């Protein structure tokens, strides 16, 4: 079970760096991911990880760059928004639609992976992790249809499969339920506020003022996993 520092990404004692994958994962996730990847390879896919574990400081860098307008903010269709027309609350909302508040990212747990299919990419293609890549006609559409049919038996589910009034759909974001469900149960607004309060992230004061709403809408508000993916998978190698 993750402790409070691990839950909020302030330490990395619960993850292991895997250089061949270019990612750090919770110790229990590797076997499940490798089994998923092997099954996909038999169907012609080459599943790679765009992002896995991110610590608090890495999430804060993403947040701060977006808060300053140095990284683009997107609408629900993945189209850029005009930073200079937004209020502070609108900037916070625009960030939260696609990027978690530091301390509140599921990527802190080592159970989350953003995936893509290397086999589908032409030379020089840059993965963007936008909805159009997974949509019909998109470069990774076939991979995501395969994941729809197969990921549950390896313990994975999509926490942002549909729009529930918070984070916009992220089909590329897979969560390993046996680790992430207990972590989510322990992730509270109080814990999140404490982690943010000790940081120097931009917009901190307003985020802490809104922390209960942000936790309810953007941290706890996910699509529940199918029944079997919430169990430890006993038949993995």
Return the CATH class: Alpha Beta
Total strands: the figure is 6
Helix content: 25-40%
Q: Summarize model confidence as the mean pLDDT.
A: 94
Shape: globular
Cα-to-Cα separation, first versus last residue: 22 Å
CATH structural fold name: Muramoyl-pentapeptide Carboxypeptidase, domain 2
Strand and helix map with partners:
Elements: H1 4-7, E1 15-18, E2 23-26, H2 30-41, E3 47-51, H3 56-67, H4 88-96, E4 112-117, H5 131-134, H6 141-150, E5 156-157, E6 173-176, H7 177-186, H8 189-197, H9 204-209, H10 211-219
Antiparallel strand pairs: 1-2, 3-4, 4-6, 5-6
Helix pairs in contact: 8-10
Overview of this structure, please?
With 237 residues, this protein is α+β, with helices and mostly antiparallel strands. It has one domain: 2-Layer Sandwich (Muramoyl-pentapeptide Carboxypeptidase, domain 2). The protein is built from 10 helices and 6 strands; from the N terminus they run αββαβααβααββαααα. The protein has helices at 4-7, 30-41, 56-67, 88-96, 131-134, 141-150, 177-186, 189-197, 204-209, 211-219, and strands at 15-18, 23-26, 47-51, 112-117, 156-157, 173-176. The strands form 2 sheets. Strands 3-4-6-5 form a 4-stranded antiparallel β-sheet. Strands 1-2 form a two-stranded antiparallel ribbon. Helix 8 (189-197) crosses helix 10 (211-219). The longest helix is centred in the first third of the chain and has 12 residues, at 30-41. The radius of gyration is 17 Å and the shape is globular. It starts with a helix and ends in an 18-residue tail after the last helix.
């Amino acid at each position: 079970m993750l402790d409070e520092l691990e839950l909020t990404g302030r330490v990395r004692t619960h993850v292991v760096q895997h250089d061949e994958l270019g990612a750090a994962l919770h110790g229990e996730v590797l076997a499940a991911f490798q089994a998923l990847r092997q099954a996909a390879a038999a169907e012609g896919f080459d599943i790679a990880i765009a992002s896995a574990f991110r610590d608090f400081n890495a999430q804060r860098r993403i947040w701060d760059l977006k808060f300053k307008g140095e990284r683009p903010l997107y609408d629900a269709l993945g189209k850029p928004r005009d930073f200079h027309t937004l209020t502070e609350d609108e900037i916070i909302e625009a960030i939260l639609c696609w990027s978690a508040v530091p301390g509140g990212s599921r990527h802190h747990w080592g159970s989350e992976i953003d995936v893509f299919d290397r086999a589908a990419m032409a030379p020089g293609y840059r993965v963007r992790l936008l909805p159009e890549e997974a949509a019909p006609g998109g470069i990774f559409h076939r991979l995501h249809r395969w994941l729809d049919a197969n990921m549950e038996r390896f313990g994975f589910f999509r926490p942002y499969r549909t729009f529930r009034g918070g984070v916009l759909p992220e089909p590329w974001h897979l969560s390993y339920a046996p680790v992430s469900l207990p972590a989510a149960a322990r992730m509270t607004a109080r814990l999140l506020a404490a982690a943010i309060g000790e940081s120097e992230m931009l917009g901190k004061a307003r985020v802490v003022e809104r922390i209960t709403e942000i936790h309810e809408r953007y941290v706890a508000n996910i699509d529940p996993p199918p029944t079997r993916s919430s169990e430890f998978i006993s038949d993995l190698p």
